[in-house]
């Protein structure tokens, strides 16, 4: 009986570890894809926020648990831009042992330089 309990706890724990790893990987992919656009467009805005959330939805992530911030537009070529996102993960595998749910953020970030020069009027 004790063996079954221990096996169950480790199985649930492994499921949570897989969920954490998968969530971080999916979030990093969405951040990297969006960051390419941030570099090309000279910063982050609401259009790119929508693009990012669409990428997250396509990968099966819950966008209500995701926060994202980035360097606002317009940054000139060779200027520094960054994009930071995090998803809140709730670990439930320890709940049967009386510990309860543990919630923590999983971060993903990217930074680099802008690739486009913008004319004073704001157009490339």
Outline the structure in words.
This protein has 124 residues and is α+β, with helices and mostly antiparallel strands. Helices cover 43% and strands 23% of the residues. It contains 2 helices and 3 strands; from the N terminus they run H-H-E-E-E. Strands 1-2-3 form a 3-stranded antiparallel beta sheet. Helix 1 packs antiparallel against helix 2. The longest helix has 40 residues, at 2-41. The N and C termini lie far apart (69 Å).
User: Element order, helices and strands?
Assistant: HHEEE
- Determine the fraction of residues in helical runs and give it as a percent range: 40-55%
Continuous helix count = 2
Main sheet overview: 3 strands, antiparallel
Spatial shape: rod-shaped
Strand line-up in the sheet with most strands: 1-2-3
Distance between the termini: 69 Å
Number of strands: 3
**What's the gyration radius in Å?**
19 Å
Q: How much β-strand is present in the residues?
A: 15-25%
Question: Which class of secondary structure composition applies to the elements?
Answer: alpha+beta
Mean pLDDT: 88
Q: Runs with pLDDT <50, length 5+?
A: none
Using brief descriptors, characterize the structure shown.
124 residues; alpha+beta
How would the blueprint of this fold be written?
Layout: H1 2-41, H2 46-58, E1 66-70, E2 80-91, E3 102-113
Antiparallel strand pairs: 1-2, 2-3
Concise summary:
The protein is an alpha+beta fold and 124 residues long. The protein has helices at residues 2-41, 46-58, and strands spanning 66-70, 80-91, 102-113. It has a three-stranded antiparallel β-sheet.
